[in-house]
Write a structure and sequence with these properties.
Layout (H helix, E strand, L loop, with lengths): L11 H24 L4 H14 L7 H25 L5 H21 L5 H18 L19 H18 L4 H10 L5 H25 L5 H24 L2 H25 L2
Helix pairs in contact: 1-2, 1-3, 1-9, 2-3, 3-8, 3-9, 4-6, 4-8, 5-6, 5-7, 5-10, 7-8
Length: about 270
C-alpha cells in the first residue's frame, strides 16, 4: 500500500479511503451477522477493486489479507454475541467443529508444501462446487423457525471438521461458506443454528489467523479501525435481521453468496494463470 496513510499526516485521499473502508466494513459485517459467513471471501475482492475505482490509494494483497482478517474477527465476535442472545449458537457443536477445523487447518498448511498449487485450487474448487450444489437441493424439513437444540452426529462432525479444515489450510482460504451447506444438508442442523454456530467457528479460525498477522506486522491499524467501526454494529444488525427473516429467505441469500463464491473460485482456476 502507498505510504499516504500515516498516524500524523492523514491526507484527503486517506480520509476518503477511511470512509470507503468504513462502508465496506459495514457491508461485510452485515453479511457476517445475517448469514454466518466470515465475509473474507466478499471483502477481499471488494478491498482490492473498490478503492482504485474511486481513485483512492491501492491496497496490495498482503495488506488486504491482514485487514480482512481483522474485519472478520470483530464482525464474527459481534455477530456471535447477538446470535447467542437469540439462542442460535450450539456450544457443543461450536467446540467440536472449531477444534477439528483448527487441527485440520494446521495439517493442511503443512501438507500443502508437498502439493502442486494448481492441484490445491482444484481440490478447493471441487469442495466449494459440491457445497454450492447442495444449496440448490431441497433443505431438510424444519418444523419450526424457533431455536432448537441441534442433534449432533459426533463421528461425522469430527470428520467434516477435519476435512474442511485441511482443505482450507492447504489453500490458505477460509472454509466458512463451505461449512454452512454441509451443516445444513449433511449434519442436518437447523438453518438458524447453522448460521450462528458457523459464525462462531469462523471466529475461532480468524482469531488464530489474526494473531499471526499481527505478530508478523501485516496489519495496518488505521484502515483496520475503519473496518472495525463499520463491522461491529452492522454485524449486530445483520444478526437481528437474520432472526426476523424466514428461513426460506436466508436459504436464497446463502445460495446467492455461495454460488457467486464458487464462480469466483472456478474463474481463477480456469482463466487465471
Amino acid at each position: 500500500m502507498t505510504n499516504i496513510i500515516t498516524g500524523s499526516d492523514i491526507s484527503t485521499a486517506a480520509m476518503h479511503l477511511f470512509i470507503t473502508l468504513l462502508i465496506l466494513g459495514s457491508f461485510g459485517g452485515f453479511l457476517s451477522g445475517m448469514l454466518g459467513i466470515g465475509g473474507a471471501i466478499v471483502m477481499i475482492p471488494l478491498m482490492l477493486t473498490i478503492p482504485p475505482l474511486l481513485g483512492l490509494p491501492t491496497l496490495d494483497m498482503k495488506t488486504v489479507a491482514g485487514l480482512s482478517m481483522i474485519q472478520v474477527i470483530f464482525a464474527s465476535i459481534s455477530g456471535v454475541l447477538r446470535h447467542r442472545r437469540h439462542n442460535f449458537v450450539d456450544n457443543r457443536l461450536l467446540i467440536l467443529l472449531g477444534s477439528t477445523m483448527a487441527t485440520g487447518t494446521f495439517i493442511g498448511a503443512f501438507v500443502s508444501k508437498y502439493i502442486n498449487n494448481a492441484m490445491l485450487m482444484i481440490i478447493f474448487g471441487i469442495l466449494a462446487l459440491t457445497a454450492g450444489i447442495m444449496m440448490f437441493l431441497k433443505p431438510p424439513g424444519e418444523t419450526t423457525d424457533q431455536p432448537a437444540e441441534a442433534h449432533i452426529n459426533l463421528p461425522l462432525t469430527l470428520i467434516i471438521g477435519l476435512i474442511i479444515g485441511s482443505v482450507s489450510g492447504m489453500v490458505g482460504a477460509g472454509g466458512g461458506f463451505i461449512l454452512i451447506p454441509i451443516m445444513i444438508y449433511v449434519l442436518r442442523i437447523p438453518t438458524r443454528i447453522t448460521i450462528g454456530t458457523s459464525l462462531g467457528v469462523v471466529m475461532i479460525g480468524a482469531i488464530a489467523g489474526g494473531i499471526g498477522k499481527i505478530a508478523t506486522g501485516q496489519v495496518m491499524w488505521l484502515p483496520a479501525l475503519a473496518l472495525i467501526l463499520g463491522a461491529v454494529p452492522f454485524a449486530q444488525l445483520g444478526a437481528t435481521v437474520s432472526k426476523k427473516l424466514p428461513t426460506r429467505v436466508l436459504h436464497i441469500l446463502l445460495i446467492v453468496i455461495i454460488t457467486a463464491t464458487c464462480i469466483q473460485i472456478w474463474w481463477k482456476i480456469l482463466f487465471t494463470h
